[in-house]
Design goal:
CATH topology of chain A: ABC transporter involved in vitamin B12 uptake, BtuC
Largest sheet of chain A: none
Number of helices of chain A: 15
Number of helices of chain B: 13
Number of domains of chain A: 1
CATH class of the largest domain in chain B: Mainly Alpha
Structural class of chain A: mainly alpha
Strand content of chain A: under 5%
Number of strands of chain B: 2
Order of helices and strands of chain A: HHHHHHHHHHHHHHH
CATH architecture of the largest domain in chain B: Orthogonal Bundle
Number of domains of chain B: 2
Oligomer: heterodimer
CATH class of chain A: Mainly Alpha
């Protein structure tokens, strides 16, 4: 019984930390797509965000003798934002101002971003003394500082636990809660907060409504006096910033402040794009969708007695689920589940 | 004030001035693209200098010798160009139809898997080489076609978004590859398939006139020429163009749009699958998740930039493969990482993509107060 519980807890925590990476990616992409721009450069932007944060933290830690975790955190955050917004700017300049094809531009951005990140990742590793040697443990520790809000409560309750069965159960529940809900770095919670803010922004504010209008029908929005270009730029760049945070979370928290040229961020970035569809362009749905993807992806670890081949089949699950969602969305034909109507099309005012 | 207006479509001009306008349009197009290419090389040069503090001209010279220095390098360059080109050629009909098949990566991979399966399970059967090659090619074409037909049917029947569907199919193909690798691994425990039939060379492309990679180039050349005529001169090609311009027009002209979508996408997937055959039997003689190596994505860019013209596709593929090989050469020469090639490739593609705007639109800077019309 205990081992089952322990396994459940371990599955949940793996799912949550894995899900957070793709949640950032997908939240940013939802915002971008709401402006009518399908940015297939998400993996590239996540790469740029990740390497930006890592480089910032690395430079800070090598320049100062005694790095302060908090300062490293701020520097990493800022450099991530700068790098990922830069990626967003490249994309929006090409697709909004120069009206280049969005799919092709996005794919190019992914090639560019992954090249940039792996190049600098490799170079930083060399600077740090060899492959896999780079580590910004100090900054990473700030990212991974856990909250354990219920810690004191747990100890308090468990002290009295010996006395009655009820208290023992209570302490067990609190302990589980502590491990599954309060055991992560702050960025896990930040992602959920961003999702809530984004959801309110899109559904409850007039600017959100304007943005959606731009994504649905830019010509109408233009006629209504909405500055289409500004909305598209802002949505793409803010979206890029959010996606970039996913890369930062991956580097600082998920792989604990190191770098590996293994193409993982790219795979996660595509999963983030998949999650946007799974969530049918709704930020809140992408929260539990992200955790579900995480659980599906790591499920193979918790089912004993499989061959290596079968494990790989299990890893296919998130993609299969996404395809099923994609098909069912198109089957049901509900208007609110559909992508923004002008998704993928560039807007030129003088076009008919 | 900056005023932007659309340039006339020179190809569609009729009447007396047709010839003149057409050439003027072509000239503008070529000029702008060349300017973009030059500009991108300058920017890449600056980036190279910023990273390495080396003279960019020297680096470019190193790239040329890295790609073309020996006859073997030239053949490898030709082989890789052919592989990229065949994928781009495969994608062209789908894109011309505005079917965003970004699943080439997966289609190549399943083609490669089918080829490898044939090589592994039939390699010891002593089938004569030409027949064996045909069997493998057929298997890879079938696998690729299967990967193409699934999203196409859903697109045609229910309008399921094909961009995202094909993207997901890539990952299913990758996981499928991971599924087979432990079954085929050689030597045991290496988690790689290793060189298939290293001793017997069964299923390997034979040398033609002493050239190992000539067959790759020939196959791709034939496919490209066929595709050129298929798109330009056949009834199917015409239907693809009409569906791409407007599905409603096609329906009005009594074309069976669903059938055209499924047929074209299946063809597209089949040719990409054949790319997997070339990659395994003609080049790598092994299979891994990196067999497609991002070519499926790069080929999209190639097909799009060339406006689906196979000759221009060949030129762009040749350039991109040269950049890639050259960058890898300078990376090893100056002790950098190979990823530098992706950076340079990205910069150059950004510029070429951006330049399309100046081909399609005319930008005029009007001084002073603008007169409102």
């Amino acid at each position: 019984m205990d081992t089952v519980l322990a396994q459940m807890i371990s599955l949940i925590t793996t799912a949550v930390s894995f899900g957070t990476v793709i949640m950032y990616g997908s939240l940013g992409e939802i915002l971008t797509e709401k402006s009518g721009h399908l940015n297939l450069g998400v993996p590239g932007i996540m790469y740029m965000g990740g390497i930006g944060g890592l480089t910032g933290a690395f430079l800070y830690q090598t320049w100062t003798a005694e790095p302060v975790p908090g300062v490293g955190l701020v520097i990493a955050l800022l450099s991530t934002l700068v790098c990922s917004v830069l990626g967003g700017l490249i994309y929006s300049f090409l697709t909004v101002t120069l009206r280049a094809n969005q799919n092709v531009t996005g794919l190019t951005l992914t090639i560019f971003g992954s090249g940039l990140a792996n190049f600098f990742g490799g170079s930083l590793s060399k600077l740090a003394g060899g492959v896999g040697q780079i580590s910004v443990a100090v900054t990473s520790s700030a990212f991974r500082a856990t909250q354990h809000a219920t810690d004191s409560l747990v100890t308090l309750v468990s002290r009295g636990a010996g006395e009655s069965g009820f208290m023992r159960v209570l302490s067990g529940i609190l302990d589980t809660l502590d491990k599954t809900v309060f055991s992560y770095g702050f960025m896990v919670y930040l992602a959920v907060v961003i999702a809530i803010i984004l959801s309110r922004f899109l559904n409850k504010t007039s600017r959100g409504l304007n943005l959606r209008a731009v994504g649905e029908n830019p010509a109408t929005a233009d006629a209504a006096g909405i500055n289409v270009t500004r909305y598209k730029y802002l949505a793409t760049c803010t979206g890029a910033a959010i996606s970039g945070l996913g890369g930062l979370y991956y580097v600082m928290d998920y792989i604990k402040g190191t770098w590996a040229n293994d193409g993982n961020i790219e795979a996660l970035g595509w999963l983030a794009v998949a999650l946007v569809i799974f969530a049918t362009w709704k930020p809140l749905r992408s929260v539990w969708g992200a955790y579900l993807f995480g659980a599906l992806y790591w499920l193979y670890n918790f089912i004993p007695g499989q061959s290596r081949s079968m494990q790989e089949i299990f890893k296919m699950l998130p993609y299969v689920v996404t395809i099923i969602v994609l098909i069912s969305v198109s089957l049901r034909r509900k208007r609110e589940n559909h992508p923004p109507s002008s998704l993928g099309l560039s807007y030129f005012r003088e076009d008919r | 004030m900056i005023h932007i207006s659309k340039r006339p479509d020179f190809n569609r001009f009729t009447g007396e001035k047709k010839k003149y306008n057409r050439y003027a349009g072509m000239l503008i197009g070529v000029g702008i693209r060349l300017a973009a290419l030059l500009l991108s090389l300058v920017v890449s040069g600056v980036v190279i200098y910023a990273i390495t503090k080396l003279n960019p001209l020297k680096v470019y010279a190193e790239m040329v010798s890295g790609s073309f220095g020996t006859s073997r390098r030239v053949w490898v360059w030709l082989r890789d160009t052919a592989l990229l080109l065949v994928i781009a050629v495969g994608l062209a009909p789908a894109f011309k139809m505005r079917f965003w098949n970004i699943g080439a990566e997966g289609q190549v991979l399943v083609g490669a898997l089918a080829t490898s399966a044939c090589m592994i399970y039939m390699g010891s059967a002593n089938i004569p080489t030409p027949l064996f090659l045909i069997i493998m090619a057929a298997a890879s074409v079938l696998a690729g076609a299967l990967w193409g037909i699934v999203p196409a049917v859903f697109k045609a029947r229910w309008g399921t978004n094909e961009t995202l569907f094909t993207l997901m199919m890539n990952y299913i193909a990758i996981q499928l590859t991971n599924f087979f690798i432990p079954m085929w691994e050689h030597p045991k425990g290496s988690n790689t398939v290793g060189i298939i039939n290293a001793g017997t060379k069964a299923g390997w492309f034979p040398e033609i006139f002493g050239q190992q990679y000539l067959l790759n180039v020939l196959i791709v050349a034939v496919i490209s020429v066929l595709m050129f005529f298929y798109l330009k001169r056949s009834k199917h090609g015409y239907e693809i163009a009409v569906v791409g311009q407007s599905e409603n027009t096609a329906r009005y002209a009594a074309m069976n749009v669903k059938k055209i979508i499924v047929r074209t996408t299946t063809l597209s997937g089949a040719i990409c699958g054949l790319g997997g055959f070339l990659a395994v039997a003609g080049a790598d003689h092994t299979v891994s998740t990196g067999t497609a190596g991002g070519r499926g994505f790069v080929a999209i860019i190639v097909a799009w930039l060339a406006k689906f013209n196979p000759i221009i596709m060949a030129l762009i593929s040749a350039m991109l493969v040269f950049l890639n090989k050259g960058a890898i050469a300078i990376a090893s020469r100056f002790n950098l990482s190979n990823d530098v090639s992706d950076i340079i490739q990205g910069i150059i593609l950004f510029f070429i993509l951006g330049s399309e705007f100046f081909i399609n639109y005319r930008v005029r800077i009007t001084r002073g107060k603008e007169k409102e019309a």
